[in-house]
Specification:
By secondary structure, the chain is mainly β. The chain contains no helices and eleven strands.
Length: 127
């Protein structure tokens, strides 16, 4: 089992920045790709960004490209999401996810490809 705990969410004005963190514990050696998803009220959970274990491959949703940056520190078993130029439409609960499958050169982008999930952290962007 892998446990994931997100932190760093909060209330920010439009145009501002937040940095989310996700700390993994447990069988972290089994974790390959990690990702961030978000879910706004009344909407499905959607992919935001993902990163391979080697950090050589990243993937972003179109809405995140140019504004968000995903990174990870394997020594600390932590993945980050730096979010800049935030917009009100970025308001959502943000979830961290871990994938234990080996997928050479590929970062999964769908919820069913991830095996473990955190409890989420709320991000609210005011206009």
């Amino acid at each position: 089992q892998v446990q994931l705990v997100e932190s760093g969410g909060g209330l920010v004005q439009a145009g501002g920045s937040l940095r989310l963190s996700c700390a993994a514990s447990g069988r972290t050696a089994s974790v390959n790709a990690m990702g961030w998803f978000r879910q706004a009220p009344g909407k499905e959970r959607s992919f935001v960004a993902g990163i391979s274990r080697s950090r050589s491959t990243t993937s972003y949703a179109d809405s995140a490209k140019g504004r968000f940056t995903i990174s990870r520190d394997n020594a600390k078993n932590t993945v980050y999401l730096q979010m800049n130029s935030l917009k009100p439409e970025d308001t959502a609960v943000y979830y961290c996810a871990a994938d234990v499958a080996f997928r050479a050169g590929v970062v999964p982008t769908t919820t069913h490809e991830y095996d473990f999930w955190g409890q989420g952290t709320q991000v609210t962007v005011s206009s």
